[in-house]
Amino acid sequence: MEHKRWVFLLAIFACLLFFSRGRVAVLKWKTDDDSPVYNHTLALTLVEYTSAVYMSDLTELFTWTCERCNGLTKGFQVIEIIVDIEHCLQGYVGVAKDLNAIVIAFRGTQEHSIQNWVSDLFWKQLDLNYPDMPDAMVHHGFYSAYHNTPVRPAVLDAVKRAKKFYGENIKIMVTGHSMGGAMAAFCGLDLVVNEGYENVQVMTFGQPRIGNAAFASYYSLLVPNTFRITHDRDIVPHLPPFFYLFPQKTYHHFPTEVWVRDLSVLKIVRFGIEKVCDNTGEDPTCCRSVMGSSISDHLTYFGVELMCETWRQCSIVMGREVESYSRRDSKGNIFLSRTDPSTEVTETKTQSTTGVSSI
Ligand SMILES: *[C@@H]1O[C@H](CO)[C@@H](O)[C@H](O)[C@H]1NC(C)=O
């Protein structure tokens, strides 16, 4: 039954794609010469930050000792972890001294199976006016995940603390995968529009479309330093669908896409080719030039896994040693906070599994 539904949806999707392919000039985008340059090393670094946000052991995440808290992210100092139990969201804020940046990362959805989540994406409506941006429409679910949950206040507060402690000149980098990429985009925009921060950059991995063309053009003017990484045939960046016959009515990505393709030579060597796409957001020569139908391409970027160790079991584990940093709100959502990460959390191996719930 489930399988049939999936096949049916794929068939519809194929039809939609057939009608939505093609070249169309949608909007005139401002082109300036000092436009941001895509940085491959930074992408490799941020994908590791995005991978770590899927870890369920909050103690290891807070002390940055988790299995994925290594490599290019070594030495990261977490100052806030947010677990929204009610909506099954997770994110963190911290400081990467080597990047001279505050890094904010959001996890993708864990609510249902990934297949269900993806098939629901076909039907998402543009049903919310983005505040104070005439004609800009977005999907309320993506918007609300960031704006109408405990995530936003906790993120903003952590950014304020970090700026106070590390200086106003520190950059802000917002990242996330899948649904977390959608949240990252709304967060980056919020930091610019409502908080007045400068030097905000956003890099997302496999994010869905979140708004219409008007929204995309506001977004790209306000947060120009944004790169949207897409991986080969990842299905999610194709959703919700783009209808080129109705450019003003349809969902529309903001720029700049970077399409990473897998190429295998003699079926042995696999390597990625990156294509930095045009400034329309809907470059027909990038991921739109192929049929996006792959879930597995969605779950790894640059060879880095972007999911929990096991699906549906993103329960959280928290050791007693971080309890003094933690608080719960009335809905049971969990926050771990500190400002000065030099206050060492002493690691002991006695772990209590508090609040193990299937969230
Ligand atoms: C790219 O990002 C890395 C940090 O990940 C930085 O060290 C490097 O200087 C950047 N390169 C350019 C050309 O900006």
UniProtKB/TrEMBL annotation:
Domain Fungal lipase-type: 103-242
InterPro entries named among the record's database cross-references: AB_hydrolase_fold (IPR029058), Fungal_lipase-type (IPR002921), Sec_MonoDiacylglyc_Lipase (IPR051218)
Region described as Disordered: 336-359
Signal peptide: 1-22
UniProt key word ATP-binding: no
CDD domains, per database record: Lipase_3
Pfam families: Lipase_3 (PF01764)
GO biological process: lipid metabolic process
UniProt name for this protein: Fungal lipase-type domain-containing protein
Source organism (scientific name): Brassica campestris (Field mustard)
